[in-house]
Structure formats: structure tokens, C-alpha cells
Write a structure and sequence with these properties.
3% helix, elongated, 2 helices, 659 residues, mainly beta
Length: 659
């Protein structure tokens, strides 16, 4: 006892002499107390020394020494080395941090419930181990700083945080950090946090989830600045609850065993969007920046899936899904892969989105609510046919048969965009291509309204379809269906403005269709319209309408105009057919629309309002490119030959009446 007391007195004399640090080592943990902060150090009963609120039993102390180490307040440094780890604890937080070690498996119990020196505790991880981990419990927010750590836990999660408060997981600038978990176990992810998880930093984080998810939070997840690579998972790449927000950074998810990103409600009822997302529980996903690349191959997997709404305001998003669809026995229906999927609404007001689906019945974008696009560049490609389960038992992927009499529960067709609610497009640029059999371009199970932007769709089935009324009052619209209607409304179809270039398949399909059988009608009231394949029978056309060639329709081509520029398909003089891959120029007033025809033949109409249009074939065109390269508007043209136009007043044609 006297020896211990003498040692402490000598240390204290040295400690007080200069601005130095008292180090107290307990196993692989060293507590560092700066002289300027230590104050009185009570020594009780000859067995216990208390420094800055941290009590040490002398029998557990391996060493005490003084050096000139500079101590950073609120910092706990953890260094991994093969099968062991060492820990340095700053003196001002020593009383709140209780570490324990088992080889390189580090467990921290954090006891503070408020800030320490007006700040939170930071745990900095460095070094390398193939048999280690970091676990943290507590009741107050903190930061976990990854400063060049490579860690694999062969028996559980690499990082396991049961603290239910906000956790910042930060990759330090210019460092690369790699984490992996075991291939079997009960952990929910390679990185798990019970509380809110903020992923950030200017470094790189690589994650492998060998048992389930890559990263999981039982609360929200946000991403900022970080370069995040999730290279392999059994489950989701990122899984969270309440909401998810991506503000910036470089995110790459590949080798994913289920959904790329999945966000669910934490409770049973949504709180609705709150100010700064404070205490929000919506299941929403917010993307306001960053460069995001997601590749998923699993059956019916989604690139991004949310139980709430999905909002995209900026950023670059590339999603590829290649998994086939499947029969969901719980819901008794087929389900297919999709790039973006929301159980609620979607709103896209910025950014660049590229979505590709190569699995049977795959979707580019789908939502169970409404879809609003006001600004963005959206490119969607699907390449295979549908998925058919005969009475839910016999699988037929890439189905190419007739689907007219198949229940929608048993069949999933490929679609570029599908919304159960209304679709409104007021801006941006949307290019959709569905090359697989029965693939539709854009489908709303409610109404569809286009008031602006540029929409270009090439599809096997209907290019643009609405289960109810469909209205185009502005923007540029290209709708080309190789085996069905270019534009199809199951209610009324209103063409009120804009530039529309619609191409339908051969009889009985048309360029623009409305549900006349159900008592509805096509109304052409404005804009400039080129319709190859004709219009729905008994259409109401209040603009001046012209046909290419004979007005009788026998082999001629028809154009149905509205106010503004318009372009059509292949045309010819008199009763001659349109010529495939030929450029035409339609001039209305002082403005010219140049367009390339995708195929030969087909009845065509032009509607151009009160101004008599002129049409030329075989032109050389330039100008502002639209419709993914098959149009210019406004255009400058040269060469070509004049095509005669005949007035048409018959009120429409086609639409299931033998055309």
C-alpha cells in the first residue's frame, strides 16, 4: 500500500510540474488525463484512485506513467491489430466509457445522457483484423469515425450499435474502410444501428453482408458526401425504417441478394412529412443529390423500395434489375422486379434517372399512388416479355401469348412506368423503351395529364395508356406502338395543345384511341398533331385536319393537327405509303417540325389549327433534337419533295372499325 501511495505521489509531483498527461493502463485500455483537466485525484482506502470521475481499483491497473502525449477531448481511439485491439480513452469522457475486449472484439458501454463539454463522444476505429468487431450501447448520441479500418467479424456483425440515439458513422477523408460480417448468424446486417444512422464523411466505406443486409437501421438512415460501396449482401443493400434521405455522395450497390434500398414504416401509422424530418415516420425516401448506382439480380427485387412516398429532386440515379418475377402466395398474385417502387406516391422534380429492367415482367418505375414529374431526365428501358403463372402454379417467364383473357393476378407485363393513381407530367424529359412482347410504355390506372416537358415512348403494346381520361395540353409527345395504340385512353382522350407525334400499329389499332365502346370520345382541340395509323372513329376534331394522299383513306396517310408544330410518319403523294426511315418536314406558319418515320405504310393525319401546313418528304434536317433523335423542333431542312395534303372532315377514323 505504501509503495502504491509513493508511486502515485511521485507521479503527481511530475504531473503537476509541466503540462503533461497521466496514462493509466488497464489491460489493453489506456486512459489519458491531461494535467490541465485532472484536478484533485482522491485516493480511497489505499485501493481506489479516482481521476476526473473515473475510479480505478489499483489491483486492476497494469501501469501508470506520465508523458507529453496530446489528448483530444471526447475521443476514444480503437486500433485493431490482427487478433487484438488497443483502446485510448480521453480523460474527460473516461467516467462515461466502459470498454471490454475479447481479442479484437471491442464492446463499449457509454453511460452519459447529455453532452460532455458541449460535444458528443467520438469513437475512432483504425487498423486491421480478420476476427474483430465493434459493439456499442448507450443512451446519448455519438460519432463512430472510420479512419482506415479493415475488419471482418466471423461470428456476427462488424459494427453493432444498440444505442437508440442518433449515430454518425463517418469515413474520415482520404481513408478506405472495409467491413464484413460472418456467413451465418443472427445479426441483421454487417453494420447495424438501433438508432438513427447518419452515414457521412469524405472517405470510402466498403461493406459486405454475408448473412443478411449490408447496412440496417431500426430508425432512419441519411447519406451525405460518403463514398459507399456495398459489394455483396444476402439481403438488402440498405434497410431502414421511418425514412431515408440521400443528400450527396457516391453510392454503389451490387451483388445484392434482395432489394438495393428498402425503407419501411417504423410504426403502424405514418406521421406525415415533418419539418426537417423531426420525429418523422413515413417510410418515405428522399433523394436530393449524389451519384447512385444500384444493380440487383434477385427474383422480383427492387432497386429502391419504400413503404411510403419517393421524392427525387436532384442527383444521378442508375438502377438495373435483372431478376425474373415470382408468384406471391401470400397476396395471391405475380410480382416482378422494378427499378423504383413506392407503396405511396412518387414525385420527380430534378436529377437524372436511368432505369433498366431485363427480367420477365420487369418495371422501370412503379407506384401504388400518384406520379408527378415536373423536371428531370428519365430514361427507362425494359427488354423482356411478361410473366404468367397459370392459376398461380405453372411458371411461364417471358410469356409471349395473348393476355386478353388472363387475370392480372396471374400475369405481370413489362412496363416502363406504371402508376395505380393519376400521372401528371409538367416538365422534364422522359424516354421509355419497352422492346419485350406485351410491354407497355407509360400506364396510369387512373387519369394521365401531360402539360409540358418532352415524352418519347417506343413500346410493343400501348405506348401511353390511361385507364380513365387522358389529356395532352402542352409539351412534346412521341408515342410509337409496334403492336397496339400509340396513345390509348379508356375514358375520353383530349388533345388540347403541344406537339404530338403518335404512331399506332396496323388495323384495328390506331395512333390515338379513346373508349368509344364505353361511350367516350377523342377530342382534338389544339396543338399540332401527326397521327400515323389514324384516329379513333367518330373523333371530335375542332382544328383543321388533313390527310396525306387520298381523303378516302385507301392507302393514304392521315395527319390530325392541333395548335403548334407537329410531325408525322412516312408519307407519300396521293395514295402512296410512308417510307420507313425517311425524314419528313411539317411546316405550320413559320415553324418546322422534322420527323423520322419508323416504319412503312399506315394511314396518317395532320391537325394544324387555322394555318395550312406544308409537308415535305426526303429532307435533310437539323435543329434542336427531340424524341430521342427521331425529331427536330424547331428544325431547319433542305432538299426533299412536296407531299400533297387533302382536307379531311370525316371526324376521325380507325379505332377498332377495320382500320
Amino acid at each position: 500500500m505504501r509503495k502504491s501511495l509513493l508511486t502515485i505521489c511521485l507521479l503527481w509531483g511530475t504531473f503537476c510540474g509541466v503540462a503533461q498527461t497521466l496514462n493509466i493502463q488497464v489491460g489493453n485500455v489506456t486512459y489519458q488525463f491531461p494535467a490541465s483537466e485532472a484536478g484533485v485525484m482522491p485516493f480511497s482506502d489505499g485501493t481506489t484512485l479516482t481521476v476526473m470521475g473515473k475510479a480505478f481499483t489499483l489491483s486492476e491497473v497494469d501501469a501508470m506513467y506520465v508523458d507529453e502525449t496530446e489528448v483530444t477531448d471526447n475521443l476514444v481511439q480503437i486500433t485493431y491489430s490482427s487478433s487484438s485491439a488497443t483502446i485510448l480513452v480521453a480523460g474527460n469522457v473516461a467516467q462515461y466509457v466502459t470498454p471490454s475486449l475479447n481479442g479484437a472484439h471491442v464492446t463499449i458501454a457509454q453511460s452519459n445522457t447529455t453532452a460532455v463539454n458541449d460535444d458528443e463522444i467520438t469513437y475512432q476505429l483504425t487498423g486491421t483484423t480478420s476476427n474483430g468487431s465493434f459493439s456499442l450501447s448507450g443512451s446519448y448520441k455519438c460519432t463512430v469515425s472510420l479512419a482506415g479500418v479493415t475488419m471482418t467479424n466471423p461470428s456476427g456483425a462488424a459494427i453493432n450499435i444498440t444505442n437508440s440515439k442518433r449515430i454518425q458513422l463517418s469515413a474520415k477523408k482520404n481513408t478506405t474502410n472495409t467491413l464484413a460480417d460472418c456467413a451465418s448468424g443472427s445479426q441483421k446486417a454487417c453494420i447495424y444501428s438501433k438508432g438513427q444512422l447518419q452515414l457521412q464523411g469524405n472517405g470510402t466505406l466498403n461493406v459486405v453482408g454475408n448473412t443478411k443486409h449490408g447496412i440496417k437501421s431500426a430508425s432512419y438512415i441519411s447519406v451525405k458526401n460518403l463514398t459507399l460501396n456495398i459489394t455483396s449482401t444476402v439481403g438488402d443493400g440498405i434497410n431502414c425504417e421511418e425514412y431515408m434521405e440521400i443528400k450527396s455522395g457516391m453510392i454503389t450497390l451490387s451483388g445484392i441478394g434482395d432489394d438495393g434500398i428498402q425503407c419501411d414504416l417504423g410504426g403502424t401509422t405514418s406521421t406525415g412529412i415533418t419539418t426537417d424530418h423531426e420525429d418523422e415516420d413515413t417510410g418515405n425516401v428522399y433523394i436530393s443529390g449524389g451519384n447512385i448506382t444500384i444493380t440487383v439480380t434477385a427474383t422480383a427485387a427492387k432497386g429502391i423500395k419504400c413503404e411510403g412516398d419517393l421524392y427525387v429532386t436532384d442527383g444521378t440515379l442508375n438502377v438495373t434489375t435483372s431478376g425474373a418475377g415470382e408468384w406471391d402466395s401470400d397476396d395471391s398474385e405475380t410480382k416482378a422486379a422494378a427499378g423504383l417502387s413506392a407503396d405511396g406516391n412518387m414525385a420527380i422534380s430534378g436529377g437524372t434517372l436511368t432505369l433498366r429492367a431485363t427480367g420477365s415482367g420487369g418495371k422501370g418505375l412503379k407506384c401504388d399512388g400518384t406520379l408527378a414529374v415536373s423536371d428531370s431526365a428519365v430514361i427507362i428501358v425494359t427488354t423482356t416479355g411478361g410473366l404468367y403463372y397459370n392459376n398461380g402454379s405453372t411458371e411461364n417467364t417471358n410469356y409471349t401469348g395473348n393476355t386478353d383473357n388472363i387475370s392480372s393476378n396471374y400475369y405481370s407485363s413489362p412496363k416502363g412506368i406504371k402508376a395505380a393513381g393519376a400521372i401528371t407530367i409538367s416538365g422534364g424529359k422522359i424516354y421509355v423503351t419497352t422492346s419485350g412482347r406485351n410491354g407497355e410504355g407509360i400506364e396510369s390506372k387512373s387519369t394521365l395529364d401531360i402539360t409540358g416537358g418532352e415524352v418519347a415512348v417506343t413500346a410493343y403494346d400501348d405506348a401511353i395508356n390511361a385507364a380513365s381520361h387522358l389529356t395532352i395540353s402542352g409539351g412534346y409527345v412521341y408515342a410509337y406502338a409496334t403492336n397496339n395504340d400509340g396513345i390509348d385512353a379508356n375514358g375520353n382522350c383530349y388533345i388540347k395543345g403541344g406537339l404530338i407525334y403518335a404512331i399506332g400499329a396496323s388495323s384495328p389499332e390506331v395512333a390515338i384511341d379513346a373508349n368509344t365502346e364505353g361511350g367516350y370520345k377523342l377530342y382534338v382541340q389544339g396543338g399540332t398533331l401527326v397521327a400515323i395509323g389514324g384516329l379513333e372513329n367518330n373523333a371530335s376534331i375542332t382544328q383543321t385536319c388533313y390527310s396525306v394522299g387520298s381523303s378516302s383513306g385507301g392507302g393514304g396517310r392521315w395527319f390530325a393537327p392541333a395548335a403548334g408544330p407537329g410531325g408525322g410518319g412516312p408519307g407519300g403523294n396521293g395514295g402512296s405509303s410512308w417510307t420507313a426511315n425517311t425524314w419528313y418536314a411539317l411546316t405550320v406558319g413559320s415553324t418546322t417540325f422534322a420527323f423520322k418515320t419508323p416504319s412503312s405504310g399506315g394511314t396518317a393525319m395532320v391537325v394544324s389549327g387555322s394555318t395550312t401546313p406544308t409537308l415535305q418528304s426526303g429532307v435533310t434536317a437539323s435543329g434542336t433534337s427531340i424524341f430521342n433523335g427521331v425529331g427536330y423542333y424547331p428544325a431547319t431542312v433542305s432538299g426533299g419533295s412536296s407531299v400533297s395534303l387533302s382536307s379531311y372532315s370525316g371526324g376521325g377514323m380507325g379505332g377498332g372499325f377495320g382500320w
